[in-house]
Amino acid sequence: MNDIYTFRFFIKDSYLIEGEDKKEAVVLTKIKQEKAGLIFEGDLRVHITSVGVFPVAKDIAEAVSSRSLRQQLTAELKRYVRPHRNFL
């Protein structure tokens, strides 16, 4: 059975990490399921480097328990943050 999830993102803050060549963005995240309603609402961190955009796995693991939802959340989070990285 395929569950339909809706993701909402908003970049709240970004800052440079001292001593490293990367930034960290704090993204307000809301996940809703079509049948069950709101599943998660909170902040997730994303590391932004010259190589790419990397959501913090620990934050995602604490947010949702389903493996397939974790993978989908990671992909959607990357897709949202990537176009904004030059402006953070």
Written description of the protein model:
- The structure is a single chain.
- 25% of the residues lie in helices and 43% in strands.
- The chain is an alpha+beta fold.
- It has one domain (5-87).
- The mean pLDDT is 93.
Q: What is the structure about, briefly put?
A:
The chain has 88 residues and is α+β, with helices and mostly antiparallel strands. It is built from two helices and four strands.
List keywords for this structure.
alpha+beta, 2 helices
Biggest β-sheet description: 4 strands, antiparallel
Which structural category do the helix and sheet elements fall into?
A: alpha+beta
The percentage of residues in β strands lies in 35-45%
Radius of gyration: 13 Å
Strand order of the largest sheet: 1-2-3-4
Shape estimate: elongated
Q: What value does the average pLDDT take? A: 93
Count of discrete alpha- or pi-helical segments spanning 4 or more residues: 2
Please, what is the oligomeric state?
single chain
Write the layout of secondary structure elements.
Elements lengths: L4 E12 L6 E11 L3 E12 L4 E3 L1 H7 L3 H15 L7
Antiparallel strand pairs: 1-2, 2-3, 3-4
